[in-house]
Amino acid sequence: MLSWDPVTLSRVLTGLTLFVHIVFASIGVGIPMMIALAEWRGVRKKDPHYTLLARRWARGFVISVAVGVVTGTAIGLQLSLLWPTFMRVAGQAIALPLFMETFAFFIEAIFLGIYLYTWDRFKKPILHLLLLIPVAIGSSASAFFITTLNAFMNTPQGFTLKNGVFADFQPLVAMFNPATPTKVSHVLASSYTLSAGLLAGIAAFSLLRGRRGVYFKKALKLTATAAFVFAVSTAIIGDFSGKFLAHYQPEKLAAAEWHFETMTKAPLIYGGVLGENGEVKYALELPYALSILAGGTPNTNVIGLNEFPVDERPPLLIHYMFDLKVTIGVLLVLIPFLYLLRRWLPKGKNRGKGKGGYPKWLLLGIVALGPLSMTAIELGWMFAEFGRQPWIVRGYMKVSEAATTSQSVGSMLILFIILYLVLCASCITVLVKLFRGKSVDDEMRELGISGGERK
Amino acid sequence: MSYEIVGITVLWTFLFGYLIVASVDFGAGFFSYYSVLTGHENKVHNIIQRYLSPVWEVTNVFLIFFVVGLVGFFPDSAYFYGTALLVPGSLATVLLALRGAYYAYNTYGSSKENNKAYMAVYGATGLLIPAALSTVLAISEGGIIQEQDGKVILHWSSFFSNPYTWSVIILALVSVLYISAMFLAFYAGKAGDKDAFEVLRGYALLWSGPTILACLFAFFQINRQNPEHFRNMLNIPWMFIASLICFLLAVYFIWKKKYLGWSFILVILQFGFAWFGYGRSHLPYILYKQVSIYESFTNETMAVALITAFVAGLVVLIPSLVLIMRLFLFDAKYVRGESPKKG
Where are the transmembrane segments (chain A) (predicted)? Predict the structure, then answer.
């Protein structure tokens, strides 16, 4: 591994940092929204269960924010450390959104600090709830700014190239490039889905363990319903993203679909393997589906990969990432939908026996929502990033021209692998301890709330 | 004033903000751990923890601001510093990551008792990080980063054998402890916590001597390292004299146990004068003789956009900072610990 060239090593290290950061960043974007929802219901319905829910979520949330902050700092610094040539050429193009992202995060950090330490300080509970608005706006705004930057690297515009340097920069044109709307909304919606799914999973897990209190049922209802709404929006925006790709980044869509010849009535290929001569075997072929995905009608002309020079094609491996992510997306809509239909579901033998009246398989499915959506987010980002290879700024600068020339990237990679292992393991340990340490029932008794475990 | 000067002033101010806030933070982490080790725990630990908890996230942001702004205003500096600082920069990143995470684990994660292992991580990193970051100042004096055959190289041997490097590291270490102790003494005084105040005042006085000695040592090492920079410093002697006067007054006030608020403001002014005097005489170079603010400046549109974003950001940021300070710093009830703790 150490004998790889700095470019490959830089790619691996950046990829690794983002791989870790994305999970915590998505949680950081979505959970404030969920906490706000719970607290809002608590205030509006004067229901202390929801307030307690918000409180417990917030407590765990800080731990994940900490890891999100430090991995975010890492990627912020690595941009300059690993890609100095890229920063020299495009640094001015990307500094503005980065700068604004930091501002948004600053606001979020300040108000989160206030929120956590003012649970009982205001006379009116609504004032405490209002503190969450800047937190949620701040976290979503930082996702917005950072994603516009990534969108810019996919569909760059708003500058001219003079002697190899980006010049005459128009910041707003660059920020609101064609990729921005679909990318930003997909990132936000999928982060909300992940967070709702994770929290739903926790509630379902408690019910599976035989906890029957009404607290858990309320938690499940709020989170599973939210997960359904968010998953459906993610899927709809995903469809827009497909149309965007067909128009602006046809090589990415073509590589994802193993679509070589430009044609109308293009079929969509699901799964399969690629033979030596580029023929597709064992795949499920859906006629017209790719044309419909790309343009809404079967007669849409979909550009094939053969139109692009070989050294400008993305790796064909992204096909699997795309398929897997879409499959998971379907599951993410389906599972919470089944929850919404719970009254009409066939009643199994176990129903009502210590599972809060839900079928066991449904609860297991809901527990899986978190890991599934996490996988989908990782796959989605990997698809988006591998899919623009070999470019770092599509059409202008290749990845191989942008990396550091330093010979020490290998040892830094090992250092960061150890760091991330330590961080993730310790984060999970601390979170588990935190929730085991103080059970819901104890806390409800402490706060004088009824409706805990009915024995 | 030209955009170049505005840009570098904005960035230098941010770095100064980081210097003060982070020093308080890093030093507090160290003192907090030290107090638990030596059994002074109940005296000072709680008051330190009460200050640190709501603000720890804010500190990191100052640093990122600086780095991002530097790349935006002066893209060439990213190229030189980015390539050369891969190893020290990554090490500092790892330390920052460990410190942030373990701070949160100890404060929010563990149940009532302090986890000594967690505290050791952020106490120790609290001293290592300033040492690692301060070396950039030594590098910026030139001679250590060189470009050969289109590759940027950091000369480790001349870096470590240089007395100036070590003088900057020592200065960073002692001033972190000094700034932090001065602030915490003021904070404890504000809370009316006599025991904590006495301990922290002791720390502040203890570290004041080494701080001024380290300042003088670094000051004269600049002359050996970079005579041109030193001559520029002598052209604005009033700034360094003002710094010294602020130092003497601050220590006098804390010695007499009065005007504690002013005492800490004087500490800020002491470092402010020295910091801006040092920065001003360093101009026009960001990296001596290789990156100057005039040659590597971003284009004008971007400069205007960055400055606009900066002003707009401040409009939101300053009221928020005032709010958090009113809630946690200047709220006597909170400082005394009468308000309920974390949720």
Answer: 12-40, 61-82, 94-117, 129-153, 187-208, 220-238, 317-341, 361-384, 413-435
Strand blocks (E) in A237-345: 268-270, 273-274, 280-281, 284-286
CA–CA distance, B292 with B295 (Å, rounded to integer)? 6
Cβ-contact A30, A234 below 8 angstroms:
no
User: The complex's ipTM?
Assistant: 0.80
Residue with tokens 């006067």, as numbered in its chain: B245
Residue pair B181/B27 in contact by the 8 Å Cβ criterion: yes
Look at A70 and B108 and tell me if their CB atoms are within 8 Å: no
**Encoded tokens for B233:** 């410093």
B86 sits in which H/E element: helix B86-104
Please answer yes or no on whether B324 and A77 come within 8 Å at the CB atom: no
When comparing pLDDT for A231 and B59, which is higher?
A231
Whether B343 shows a pLDDT value over 50: the answer reads no
Distances (CA, A) of B320 to A33, A452, B325: 20, 38, 9
Q: According to the model, what pLDDT value does residue A455 have?
A: 36
Across the interface, whether the CB atoms of A431 and B109 are under 8 A apart is answered: yes
- CA-wise closest residue to B247 among B278, B274, B270, B213: B270
Tell the residue number behind the tokens 């170079």, with chain if given: B285
**CA–CA dist B304, B311 (Å, integer):** 10
Contact A122, A43 (CB under 8 A): no
Is the pLDDT at B321 greater than 50? The verdict is yes
The helix/strand/coil state of B329 is coil
Q: How far is B71 from chain A (nearest CA, A)?
A: 6
Candidate from B96, B324, B342 with C-beta closest to A110: B324
Count of CB atoms situated within 10 Å of the CB of A424:
15
Q: How many residues does chain B have?
A: 343
Q: Which residues pair with A431 in a beta bridge?
A: none
- Is A147 in contact with A130 (CB distance < 8 Å)? no
Return the bridge partners of B299, or none.
none
Averaged over A106-133, what is the pLDDT? 81
Nearest to A339 by CA among A192, A209, A219: A219
pLDDT at A294: 76
Q: How many helices (H) and strands (E) does chain A have?
A: 14, 8
